[in-house]
Amino acid sequence: MLTTVPYRWDIHPRAPKTHFEQFPDIPPLVVQILYNREIFEPQDVYSFLNGGYAINDPFLLPDMEAAVTEILTAIEAQTPMVVYGDYDADGVTSTALLMQALQTLGANVSAYIPNRFTEGYGLNKKTISKLAGTGAKLIVTVDCGIRSVAEVAHGNQLGLRFVITDHHLLGVDDSGAEILPPAVAVVNPKRRDSRYPFRDFAGVGVAFKLAQALNRRAPQNGQPPLDETELLDLVALGTVADLVPLTRENRTLVQRGLAKMQNPVRPGVRALMEIAGATGKTITAETIGFVLGPRLNAAGRLKEGMLAYQLLATDDPVEAQKLAMELNQINSERQFLTREFTDKSLAQFGDDETLDALYLVTDEAFNSGVVGLVASRLTEMCYRPILVAHRGETHTRGSARSIPEFDITRALDQCADLLVKYGGHAAAAGFTVENEKLEAFRERLTAIARQSFDVTRLRKSLPVDAEINLRGVRYDLVAAIEKIAPFGHGNPTPVFVSRNLEVRHHTLVGKEKTHLKMRLFDGKQMWDAIGFGLGKQWQAQQTIPGVVDAVFSLEINRWGGREQLQLKLKDIRPAEQSDWPSS
User: What are 300-355's pLDDT values in tens digits?
Assistant: First the structure.
């Protein structure tokens, strides 16, 4: 029977005393949390807490002048243009945002979202030819296009002009020079020649900067100007869902976008919140990451990303309700398939007590839209590099997810002679292999992993911001910690450890008894605690120790007009023991 890998609790070192002395008006625990996130300077600390990060001049982005000139000229001449996006949440929010901006400015514009299964990610020549055949003259990409050199060149031969807006890394040639597609303008904050003071936008952030720039240069022509604040809900949705760092300008944009979403005006966002059960609740980055974003992503994973775009773009509440119900159903199917394929994958692992260094699992039934989710789930469960793939008639195509100890793309480099194509980064990659070479690929990659790390020493890291005594925790401290939100990539939810908590009550809850609910006594007061996903671990252990050390985040549970402090458990161990099977 497979066992899960225990966590290693990595507690951040305490900041120097002289650092705390710089912030006498801020709770020391908040100072420590920001210190852990490498926010040291007083100006940065106060900007972070008070929403003081600047919304910078969009014209600092490379080629923005050329992009604005090209698009405004097309608007004036009523030249047919297409906003070309992507099928994920970032792509559909980027497309909806720029479409709204261009339509407000009077453009003759339509939207295009490619199909994952028939067209793949980004620009492709067949689709470009099709768009040219419909009369389009200008294509503006959002969240894609930065590596579409051949595709843009193909479009140029057909008489098309391109404005590329993207946030992904640029390709480089043999000399290390960046390769730009032959477009009229290439707007990307990751270009080396960018003067913009922030690099980490999502695609929707770059689209928003283009909308800002267009709005500032567009002639009024007697029509009301674009209200940029009406776009911020889309910026928040796409930014959080795409897992870019919620720092600096992203932080400010998401904060303002979340404020708009508390009382949503956009029919599609309102309908999506209603169908997901989020209406009437405080909308946070976590709501986007775990509730709204997956529903937007599900359309492109299993059906058509265009459905998610249509939901965000519609002004009709009835249509919005219909589309939200359809996306909710698709997301339910996505959840079912993810669970089913995860179980199928685990069955291929075998019954060995000890996990191997790496697993490559394939099946004819696997859906290519969810193999990445399955790989991510298995990597989290087993703390191993995992590759999950759909096995077709002649080729196997899939996704890989990895751990910090193993750069999966470098490992794939060592298997390049066996692969049709591959690409990615250290933690995630995609690949295609001919079926006749599949076993050789599996054997070589597994051997590389076995040589790269000692499987017996692998431990999942659980970063902990500080060790605290719960007896000193009050509402005002938790409220101060909440000011560090929105939490997400680059600004994780603060996590703490407390020792020697007495277990007064415990029970397994949830439909499949997968969650652990507890009441813990700190010697002075009682704490309600919930550990999502910890139930399976303690079903296996059968007994709960009487006194535990616990890692958790602090929350204010708001319901029915009442507020109560609670612990959201990440891991527990018997008190004063260092090695214990964990979730």
Answer: 999 999 999 999 999 999 999 999 999 999 999 999 999 999 999 999 887 766 78
Q: What is the pTM of this model?
A: 0.91
- Mapped onto helix, strand or coil, the DSSP state of residue 148 is coil
Rounded to whole angstroms, how far apart are CA atoms 86 and 104?
22
More confident residue, 82 or 224: 82
Phi first, then psi: what are they for 568, rounded to 5°?
Answer: -105, 105
Which of 270, 259, 274 is closest to 314 using CA atoms?
270
Q: How much is the pLDDT for 96?
A: 98
Q: Which domains does the chain have, with CATH numbers?
A: 7-11+462-574 (2.40.50.460), 58-261 (3.90.1640.30), 358-452 (3.10.310.30)
Cα gap 470→565, rounded to integer Å: 11
Q: What is the pLDDT of residue 349?
A: 85
What's at 179, amino acid-wise? Answer: I
Closest CA to 189 of 175, 176, 204, 174: 204
Gap between the Cα atoms of 52 and 67, Å rounded: 29
- Cα distance between residue 389 and residue 345, in whole Å: 10
* Continuous H helices in 158-304: 203-217, 232-241, 248-261, 267-275, 285-287, 293-302
467: which strand partners?
497
Other Cβ atoms closer than 10 A to 57: 15
